[in-house]
Q: What sequence folds into this?
């Protein structure tokens, strides 16, 4: 095959899930071939700039530069994902591109897409290629990934932006922020520090209602009804209007409001029964509850403290006297705030049977033409996932309502609690107006607070992480990394650590495997998995890692940063450990006869040694630094 036939071929993909010798962060690495006598970069720019016009501001001289920068934009998925770096080196006739990524399932597909796009430009078939459609399909793949969830991505991004280490624990399908004893693990806003029974309890809305009433918190009366006959009996006791909702529902799914008659109640009850049956769930009844008039609000607490309030309105369109409701929905869905991805404040409005039924109650249908300026609500519920609109009202809430939220949160051992209320005016004390708690949620979504449709965003993801770590650098534990750290050296260091802090657990990785405070644990075939074992252990207070050139080439470092780096007659690959040095950290360089202690390039201390006492002199040099690190990181 001629080299021209290989133009823009991408191959030899390899993924590093942490810092490595290509980039100081996780990287997808692959080979790219570009024909030396092919078109220059300017030939491709017009097509690329048409899709990504902001790239025109960059000084992209070579085809490889243009290719890598274009791939970076594709990996950002048109939603400004927080990835920024790439490097380009050469390997014989190939370029080697290392590029930061978030999701490995879509990352390789992204590289192939850009490769095929550039090939289509060469072949003069770029219009037939339809890059935009293929890009949309790639975005759909990313949206289905774990990071496609806006709340989880926002927490991952908050960690990255605040220099809090973030690990994806693939075996557990969750993320970890911070290392060892400092860690916070979870998925969305449900964390390992939450009380399991408290989290479980909030799912049972009938029991929660009884609990709130017992405590004297304002909540509408109602009961769980196991049969339709029970529901009718409860309705006659409570009076209309009523709300009917599943016992264990979420995101407003199955909630039916504004029920005025027993016949409507029967239809609503049957609807919830059929929904459970369709989803293969055991039907454990439906809650029949008084309806409170007012606007839907979400109050959010973190560690029991109020941090944000959001007003939510059901999805709506505003008439212009010309277009049908169906056409108005189409136009509404074109708004930037309704792109319905991991970074957009609102979801699309999707017409369905519930919407049709609610419009019928207003003597409307999707073909109706509302008069100019008339606001037409499309659903009973205001949940963002159902097309609702979010408005930040944090600055408007009355102090008594804040105190109420914190009183409720005080009963639950969960980091994040969402309290859903109905109130005409959140600025009026709950004791003075229509006000009712309709449900509480452990593990609530928080992206809507970060990016409401209207009003300023609140950095809730950052608040969540800092509520645990207090400050970003306290998410870390002391780390020593080097290229020739032996088991005998780690044993001596463990003895020193025990002098300072006898209860501190030290995780070490040497050629022999993983040890915890001197006791052998396991040796995984994967170097990065061994590093992960140590960082994942919830009692690791200090870590020591040996990285030789073979492990660096094959696996990278995995951990982010080190406080002490030991380079013992290091080769080129092992020298890249220097890039992991944290601010204020130390590098120890060992040559044939000398040990030098450096901070950056400044030599602080230098000692001569004989091979037999090298490790003892090294430990003596490290001892005071270790003591300082243990105090600095509060381990």
A:
């Amino acid at each position: 095959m001629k080299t021209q036939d290989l133009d823009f071929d991408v191959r030899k993909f390899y993924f590093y899930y942490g810092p490595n010798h290509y980039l100081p962060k996780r990287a997808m690495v692959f080979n790219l071939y570009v024909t030396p006598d092919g078109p220059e970069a300017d030939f491709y720019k017009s097509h690329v700039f048409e899709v990504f016009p902001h790239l025109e501001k960059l000084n992209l001289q070579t085809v490889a530069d243009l290719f890598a920068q274009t791939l970076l934009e594709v990996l950002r998925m048109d939603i400004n994902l927080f990835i920024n770096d790439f490097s380009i080196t050469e390997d014989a006739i190939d370029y080697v591109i290392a590029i930061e990524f978030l999701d490995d399932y879509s990352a390789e597909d992204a590289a192939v897409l850009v490769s095929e796009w550039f090939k289509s430009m060469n072949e003069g078939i770029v219009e037939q290629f339809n890059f935009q459609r293929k890009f949309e399909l790639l975005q759909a793949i990313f949206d289905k990934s774990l990071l496609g969830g806006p709340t989880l991505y926002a927490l991952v991004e908050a960690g990255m932006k605040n220099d809090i280490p973030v690990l994806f624990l693939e075996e557990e399908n969750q993320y970890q922020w911070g290392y060892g004893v400092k860690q916070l693990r979870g998925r969305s806003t449900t964390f390992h520090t939450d009380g399991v029974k408290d989290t479980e309890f909030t799912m049972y809305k009938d029991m929660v209602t009884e609990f709130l009433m017992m405590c004297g918190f304002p909540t509408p009366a109602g009961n769980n009804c196991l049969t339709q006959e029970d529901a009718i009996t409860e309705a006659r006791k409570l009076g209309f209007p009523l709300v009917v909702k599943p016992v264990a529902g979420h995101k407003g799914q199955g909630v039916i409001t504004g029920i005025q008659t027993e016949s409507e109640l029967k239809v609503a009850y049957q609807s919830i029964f059929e929904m459970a049956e369709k989803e293969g769930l055991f039907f454990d009844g439906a809650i029949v509850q008084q309806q409170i008039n007012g606007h839907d609000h979400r109050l959010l607490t973190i560690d029991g403290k109020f941090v944000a309030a959001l007003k939510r309105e059901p999805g709506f369109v505003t008439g212009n006297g010309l277009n049908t409701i169906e056409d108005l929905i189409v136009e509404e869905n074109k708004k930037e705030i309704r792109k319905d991805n991991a970074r957009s404040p609102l979801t699309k409005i999707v017409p369905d049977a519930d919407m049709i039924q609610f419009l019928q109650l207003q003597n409307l249908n999707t073909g109706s033409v509302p008069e100019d300026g008339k606001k037409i609500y499309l659903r009973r519920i205001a949940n963002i996932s159902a097309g609702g609109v979010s408005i930040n009202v944090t600055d408007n809430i009355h102090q008594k309502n804040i105190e109420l939220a914190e009183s409720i949160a005080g009963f639950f051992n969960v980091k994040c609690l969402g309290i859903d209320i109905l109130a005409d005016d959140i600025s009026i004390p709950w004791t003075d107006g229509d006000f009712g708690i309709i449900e509480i949620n452990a593990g609530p979504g928080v992206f809507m607070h970060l990016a409401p449709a209207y009003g300023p965003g609140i950095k809730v993801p950052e608040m969540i992480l800092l509520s645990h770590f207090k400050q970003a650098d306290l998410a870390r534990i002391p780390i020593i990394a080097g290229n020739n750290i032996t088991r005998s050296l780690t044993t001596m260091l463990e003895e020193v650590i025990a002098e300072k802090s006898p209860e501190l657990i030290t995780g070490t990785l040497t050629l022999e495997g993983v040890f915890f405070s001197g006791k052998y644990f396991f040796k995984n075939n994967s170097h990065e998995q061994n590093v992960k074992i140590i960082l994942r252990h919830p009692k690791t207070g200090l870590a020591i890692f040996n990285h030789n050139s073979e492990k660096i080439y094959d696996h990278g470092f995995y951990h982010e940063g080190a406080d002490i780096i030991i380079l013992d007659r290091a080769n080129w690959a092992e020298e890249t450990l220097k890039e992991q040095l944290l601010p204020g950290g130390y590098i120890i360089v060992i040559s044939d006869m000398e040990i030098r202690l450096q901070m950056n390039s400044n030599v602080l201390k230098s000692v001569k040694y004989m091979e037999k006492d090298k490790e003892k002199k090294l430990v003596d040099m490290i001892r005071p630094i270790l003591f300082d690190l243990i105090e600095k990181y509060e381990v």
Q: What stands out?
A: The chain has a mean pLDDT of 94.
